[in-house]
Write a structure and sequence with these properties.
It is built from 9 helices and 12 strands. The chain is α/β, with parallel strands linked by helices. 48% of the residues are buried.
């Protein structure tokens, strides 16, 4: 199976390369060589590579900056995925697009199934929803996988930020009234490839098992990092309300995803805390995500 991945230098792109089985020829060019916002160049590369599957792991993920750069966020998250899906359709390739829990407003109070009505609160969420619609319009058999709170052993993410702040500060204040499901990029990569093999299409949800607040997640990072001697000293973690930490973009208070359909298709994931241990072990041993 020949798989072409956008966003090859990102944490999910690297995780996909690491997760590929021996029978998968996975090509994951860096952004400089595969810019999804260059429509002609992108279509030419897809035609030349002639993949069986195209996975879009590229995204504009700066949630707060998107409020100041809505046009750029829409280009990367909303418009370009439609171009990719169109080019994949023309090349006869299956298409997988990665989306987010931020397409929901968090008001439901229970896990969101794939067919729940999106209602994004932020520019980022709105552009990701636009991307979903563009993909399915251009490639009706595409697979759209929504996920949440993705992190890896390297790169810029919540885990790496917490490790730095815990080492540098006297205390770390973390929001305790936003709830979701932390998801290891390696776990997500395995799930995406498994869903491709299973022939899944339409909208699916996938996260690691279990739920947590950002505060819960930070406490777990602190405990597991201390147990591995990743931190000689760790500041205490103090819970705060969202109102105490204002941001440019509004975030959903409870964006837990109902992943039962995907899990019935490819099996159950590990609990998020188990996957956190895996990621921290990768940092200890120096392995990439």
């Amino acid at each position: 199976m020949r798989v072409l991945v956008t966003g090859g230098s990102g944490q999910l792109g690297r995780a996909l390369a690491a997760a590929a089985a021996p029978d998968v020829a996975l090509i994951a060019p860096p952004k400089a060589d595969f810019d999804i916002t260059d429509r002609r160049a992108m279509a030419r590369i897809i035609a030349e590579v002639a993949p069986d599957v195209l996975i879009n792991a590229a995204a504009y993920t700066a949630v707060d900056r998107a409020e100041r750069e809505p046009e750029q966020a829409m280009l990367v998250n909303g418009t370009a995925p439609g171009w990719l899906a169109e080019a994949a359709q023309a090349a006869g390739a299956a298409f997988v697009h990665v989306s987010t829990d931020f397409v929901f407003d968090g008001a439901r109070g229970s896990p969101y199934p794939p067919d729940a009505l999106p209602s994004p609160l932020s520019v980022y969420g709105a552009t990701k929803r636009a991307g979903e619609e563009a993909v399915l319009a251009a490639h009706p058999d595409a697979l759209v996988v929504r996920t949440a709170w993705v992190y890896a052993a390297e790169g810029q993410n919540f885990v790496r930020t917490m490790l730095r702040l815990l080492a540098e500060r006297d205390e770390v204040r973390v929001v305790a009234d936003q709830v979701g499901s932390p998801t290891h990029a390696a776990s997500l990569a395995r799930a995406l490839l498994a869903l491709v093999r299973a022939g899944a299409t339409g909208v699916q949800h996938w996260t690691d098992a279990g739920v947590a607040s950002w505060y819960d997640f930070a406490i777990a990072i602190r405990e597991e990092a201390l147990a591995r001697w990743l931190l000689a000293h760790a500041a205490p973690v103090v819970p705060i309300r969202t109102a105490d930490y204002p941001t440019a973009a509004k975030r959903p208070s409870c964006s837990v995803l109902d992943c039962s359909a995907a899990r019935a298709c490819i099996g159950l994931p590990a609990h998020w805390r188990e996957e956190l241990r895996v990621a921290l072990d990768m940092i200890v041993t120096g392995r990439a995500a």
